[in-house]
Amino acid sequence: MRLEEYIEQVSDVFVLSDSFLRIKELVDDEASTIDDISEVILLDPALAGSILKLANSSFFSYPGKIDTISKAVLVLGITEIYTLVLAYFTTEAFKLDDENNDYLEQFWLNSIDCALLIKFLGVHLNVANAERLFILGLLHNLGELVVHQVTPEAISRCRESDLLPWQQQRAVLGFSYGECSAELLKYWQLPYSLFSSIRNQDINEVALQSIETQLLYIAKRVTYKSMVMPNESIKALSYQELIGEELLEQLEITDELLANAVDYCMLDRMGMLSILCPSAMVIY
């Protein structure tokens, strides 16, 4: 099957809610106000509760208490609120049947790990608004869920190889999960800056790409190597072998910094899981 056929088959299964689409319209409309956005969020109590939990989490480290949605939008900014709303509705959109709960929980655990890692690296490198990088990590592998929905038998075949995961995905499917993720985000009409970085996460000439793409490239590989269920074909590789000395030197990223990023992820993943995917807490 072609990549486009996969997206066509899941376009009616994995959809973002009307509330998200309305919020997206307001964010894109320069005439919208904080109150306009807050009112739509408040129409969904579960969303409003998740936004307040995230806004008050260590993720933002805001010194005061954020106790209203309007204050959250004012303090964090419309862009950050949009990111949080997207994170919430994306996890809601991908609901599989009960027998696949364990698979989905592990998937979101790995995605949150990647999201926390890229955010940590962005903060360390003084990337502007580094919190926005979180959404790249969270959404970078949605294509795997697309493939799981359409051709679930292909998932195991994508794991049966000593090739690097994204190389095996292309061998089996003709495209990587990252490329499939980008195609879905493009179908959802999300910003080009978002899906272009995700599409290029496995490109060979990554040293010439944007800082967002470079950091996603790194965070994804650290996730495969060091997190809860490491990929065995990657685990034995050094960071220099896996990521490339040129890119690490270009960004001045050391093994010590990557170890610190992993420690940060281990400390914060529980909080993120409890908000975005509470059922995955049973893994622990």
TrEMBL record:
Coiled coil: none annotated. InterPro entries: HDOD, RNase_Y/CdgJ. It comes from the Bacteria. This is HDOD domain-containing protein. The lineage of its organism: Bacteria, Pseudomonadati, Pseudomonadota, Gammaproteobacteria, Alteromonadales. It comes from Colwellia asteriadis. Residues 13-204 form the HDOD domain.
